[in-house]
User: What shape does this take?
Amino acid sequence: MTLPHSDQPAADALVLFGATGDLAKRKLFPALYQLERTGLLKVPVIGVARSDWTDQAFCEHAEEAIVAADAHADAAVIGPLKQRLDLIQGDYSHQSTWEELRDTLDRHGSKHAVYYMAIPPSMFPVVAQQLASVGLNQRGRIVVEKPFGRDLPSAQELNQTLAKVFPEERIFRIDHYLGKESVEDLLVFRFSNALLEPVWNRRYVRSVQVTMSETIGVEGRGSFYDGVGAIRDVLQNHLLQVVALLAMEPPAGADSQYLQDEKAKVFAAMRPIEPDDLVRGQYVGYRDEHGVDPNSDVETFAACRLEIDSWRWAGVPWYVRVGKGLAESATEAVVEFQRPPRLLFDEAGGPPPGRNLVRFRLGKQDGVTFALQAKTPGPHLDSQEVDISVDFAAALGERSAAYERLLGDALAGSPRRFARQDIVEHTWSVIQPILDTPGPVHPYFRGSWGPSEAERILENEDTWYEPSS
Ligand code: NDP
Ligand code: BG6
Assistant: This one.
């Protein structure tokens, strides 16, 4: 991996708030290891924690996290990484914690730090304000984890609070789907292949489906998840970002502003989702999970229909489905095309040929499959479905993980793969009606495709496509 073009100065220190937490353990330390391995980590990494850990305990924790993610991790990489680690232990409400952080950054000669907030969202404003109290907001940028608010008013309030302390260009809002190569590929695939553009519109596309299914349940995150649910956890952010990449017009160029401007137009044209166009589900057994309210009606599944009232997409239904405890783990976008105007080749008189599909596999085994029609062997003129498929890892080689890319971007100062304020607010506006009137939650069994009620939102003879991977 090489670092992208920077819009801002490269960072000279990384400050990790929440360094003792789950995200740091599962994603951030493994990402730091990869950046160290590829020579891209050149800065001190300063953890900040309330936990009473020594520097040594912190280093051991980091090493364990790295080895848990990669049993073959190279000790010759872990060693130098540990040399970069430093821990500031202290309460966030004590001014001395912030003075110590400032002094530590001074000692490293830091002028452009990255402050990464791997902490509960309720703490984002506190940390931003405390950084400002010792002048550190003048010399760095913040990386804010999701969820960014829990509805439109709270997202606006959080934006306003952060904006008092950091200018917009120095607020990097993480949505790790934007760091996935497979998701970014949607943009490149669409606009680098001239054959797609003429048919990528309401005249030829019949519907678009995006499914994010996970076999896992809430996996020890019950108390977090029960305050959030599937709509806030992944639909508002990851899934709507995927929709925007599939729907947007060609940007004027690859610069961050151009990309964000085109996405913003998609959301401006997207109708707020009507409560009738939503079906929520909850897997049986969710209420028994640790940290979950036994009477919870929080959804672990959501299926909804979206409309984008633009020149390109008016009238095309967009179906989006997300859920935990489902039959397979896959993230897939399926673009379904209209049938040809006449059925010419059906001499054997079988069922009508299926519609052409473009399936983007965005999760594991990412790639793309075109479902097309070809002549059935034999004397008759008949057609049958054939898949033209590419597995990107086999064709292009292994790619970097999302958090590695995003941490690299944050250090390099490139905002391209982060979410802009207006877009975050647009996405909350789109889902606000279904947050206000969510409707009932339907039970479903683990290992299924969610509640059968999800069929209700499909139009005409549409069906949900099961992921192909
Ligand atoms: P944790 O609950 O593990 O908390 C992270 C750390 O924050 C803790 O180790 C703790 O460290 C510190 N912390 C907790 N509560 C407080 C508090 N009240 N005041 C100050 N510090 C506190 O969270 P995660 O690591 O799971 O998540 C961190 C962020 O990342 C959240 O915004 C979350 O939504 C987001 N996220 C997490 C994902 C995940 O898979 N875990 C996925 C995507 C986003 P200490 O007490 O030592 O300071
Ligand atoms: C996170 C959600 O943002 O994305 C989790 O909080 C979800 O609930 C995860 O499991 C899925 O990410 P990925 O990269 O495994 O598709």
